[in-house]
Amino acid sequence: MVNVDTVYQKVLIIANKEQRGYITPLEFNLLASQAQMEIFNNYFVEMSQLKAIPGNESEYSDAIKTLNEKISIFKKKSTSLNFTNNFFKYPSDLYKLGTVYFASTGLLTDGVEVQEITDDELLDYHNSPLTSPTTKRPIYIRREDDIKVFPSTINSGITCSYIRKPVKPEWGYVVVNEQALYNSNSATNFELHASEETTLVLKILGLAGIVMQKQDIAAIGQQA
Q1: What pLDDT sits at residue 224?
Q2: Segments forming the whole domain that contains residue 154
């Protein structure tokens, strides 16, 4: 993880140099959350690009391994999905859905993988005796906030693996003599890998420069 106070102090030092401007705690927290998500989203873009590169796979294996290491802390397994109004709801912190399982006993070792299909394929699956969904061969359709599992007799026992969103960073503080002082008890650190500290500082500066219309600060952020 990356310490939120360390990042904020570095951002302030650079932004305040030569009186470029002050970034308030509220502004920092908003920009910090956006910067973290931009870096996090980029992991998956980079992963897709690396896997799409033809040639010797070993040449890119270290880069893929590094990305997997950065993503690994966000992976969650065997998470039960709540059944509401005939649909299984996603976890509130879901970013990317992984594998969906059905286990009537509640034990994943006794379960089967639920196959994802599209709305257009549903009728074909139901009409064919070879592909018609059963508890031993279940299927599901993905929606924005939930999934629909078939056969419809399944109303429990659905679990999934998924990648969760990072928790929003927060520079916690108390006001003393009209000054904001860091309070670690109410702070939330960045969840990104420690190696991302410099990238976070640069991205936040870039975002702050745009907000404050300071081209010199925005230019620093473009190095991220």
Answers
A1: 56
A2: 76-164
